[in-house]
Design brief:
globular; two-stranded antiparallel sheet; mainly alpha; single chain
């Protein structure tokens, strides 16, 4: 009887297992999981994440402090201001870039590369990937590139570090191929593309404008190669008109990712509500170097960029603006702290303010340099310089039409281009304008300054600084890379040079 009972129970179990196996796939499929990624949604996220990467730590505390756009009396948060080593800040960009924007862009590329009708999506994603990678390599030098974000597709979990030279050459190739392959007769990302609504013609100009930027980046290390790519970019067609500017649009919610990181990240961590200039968490202010430059040249952009708190409102008039000196640890009283300039919360620090990614102000100024070098002869360097200034003035309208500066004549009359000056004098003028026009894009200002040396900045020599009183030339690698990807990182350090803030990256040598 026991034997029959056991056989009976076994039969029930086997029958149940057979029944389960029939519906196994259906039962074990999560209805809330997307099996096949939607490239449109992921590309939108890649754009947001690519620009929302530790803005406050990277752009304000590090790059902005080093380039004297920003200053603070505090020591811990004054890493860039005082040339100190703070792993939390210098590693932040690297640590977040790969798992978010880079990985998301690779997912898009993998999803669309096999479908000829999605060729525009593929090539726009390639251009965006190039934009993201140039931001990382410009901060750190040699980085994971050719094997990065390949864990899912190729099971590469410890990617090698590529040389910056090979990365730059491949980025330029990618931009060239992608721009050439864009086809206006095919569909694109449409509204899922927050920069251009999928406008292929504008993405082509974006690609060539980024090529112009990267080509110019090579002027110190390889002038011949720089000229080749600069002339190719010009021939391809760069952004000239403001209507082609790459502008990221934001809203004030409903989620934090929808807010402009320039204002949201900065106001959340330092310029907090209710501080009114007197109780900033990290003591952040606009730097004396920057404010003095704007005041000495009677630059009308100062009222768009900055304000001094007077009660619960900011006074944006030129006369009251005052920058905080870099490299000091003397804490002002709250009342005194409130007398220094901060970013204007009605414009650059507004939660729903647009963010300029690449504009005709930058491209015209780079064309002015190309003309001064004799690489571009269609227009004079003076005319291009003035176009760049005028474009920057008009671009203030991204914060609202009333902020547009429509008449640049008084400024250009007071600050004329030195047509008869030396090449270096012209470079100083051109790149001082980039220093002003690209305010809030502190990463690009930092990269452009390292290449050109302009404007001339007087370094600070804060006690205990780690650069011997010189402005840092790169970011250090994250400590986590030494434990997780130590072998590949060791090869990169051996090749590039000691992992410190004064080792120059490839294009900066």
């Amino acid at each position: 009887m026991k034997k029959l009972t056991l056989l009976y129970l076994t039969g029930i179990l086997l029958g149940g297992m057979t029944s389960c196996s029939k519906d196994f796939e259906e039962i074990n499929t999560n209805p809330n999981v997307v099996e096949k990624p939607n490239p449109n949604y992921i590309f939108s996220k890649a754009q947001l994440d690519g620009l929302n990467n530790n803005y406050f730590a990277t752009n304000i505390l590090e790059c902005g402090g080093m380039l004297q756009h920003y200053a603070t009396y505090k020591e811990a948060s004054g890493a860039g201001d005082k040339y100190l080593s703070n792993e939390v800040y210098y590693s932040a960009y690297f640590n977040q870039a790969y798992p978010t924007g880079i990985n998301e862009t690779e997912i898009v590329i993998d999803a669309v590369k096999g479908n000829p009708t999605d060729s525009n999506k593929l090539n726009i994603a390639r251009i965006w990937r190039a934009y993201l990678y140039h931001r990382i390599t410009d901060l750190y030098g040699d980085i994971p590139y050719s094997q990065a974000a390949k864990a899912n597709t190729s099971s590469i979990f410890l990617p090698k570090y590529d040389t910056q030279e090979s990365i730059y050459k491949d980025l330029l190739k990618e931009l060239d191929e992608a721009a050439t392959a864009l086809d206006a007769s095919k569909t694109s990302f449409g509204k899922a593309d927050f920069l251009y609504d999928g406008d292929v013609a504008k993405w082509k100009k974006f690609s060539y404008s980024l090529m112009l930027r990267l080509g110019m980046r090579l002027t110190k290390v390889d002038p011949t190669l720089a000229k080749t790519w600069v002339t190719k970019a010009i021939a391809g067609g760069v952004i000239i008109n403001g209507t082609d500017n790459a502008v990221m649009r934001y809203t004030d919610g409903p989620n934090d990712i929808n807010r402009n990181p320039v204002g949201f990240d900065s106001r959340r961590q330092d310029f907090t509500a209710g501080s009114y200039g007197q109780k900033n968490v990290e003591g952040g202010k606009l730097g004396k170097t920057f404010i003095d430059l704007l005041k000495s040249t009677a630059d009308p952009r100062i009222s768009v960029y900055s304000g001094v708190w007077q009660g619960t409102t900011q006074n944006t008039s030129l006369a009251v603006q005052k920058g905080f000196p870099n490299g000091t640890k003397t804490a002002p009283t709250p009342v005194e702290q409130g007398t220094y300039s901060e970013p204007n919360q009605s414009t650059v620090f507004k939660y729903d303010a647009p963010l300029m990614v690449i504009s005709n102000a930058e491209t015209n100024l780079l064309l002015a340099e190309a003309a001064a070098r004799g690489w571009y002869t269609n227009e004079a360097d003076k005319d291009l310089y003035e176009k760049g200034v005028k474009a920057s003035f008009l671009n203030m309208a991204i914060y609202g039409p009333t902020y547009a500066i429509t008449d640049a004549t008084p400024y250009l009359t007071l600050n004329p281009f030195n047509t008869a000056g030396s090449f270096e004098a012209k470079m100083n003028q051109i790149h001082t304008q980039i220093y002003v026009a690209l305010f809030v894009d502190e990463q690009e200002v930092y990269s452009n300054w390292r290449r050109t040396g302009y404007p001339v900045l007087v370094p600070v020599n804060f006690p205990g600084n780690v650069t011997n009183g010189t402005i840092p030339r790169r970011f250090k690698y994250p400590t986590s890379e030494y434990s997780v990807n130590s072998t590949n990182l060791a090869e990169a350090v051996k090749r590039q040079g000691e992992d410190n803030f004064t080792t120059k990256i490839w294009w900066d040598k």
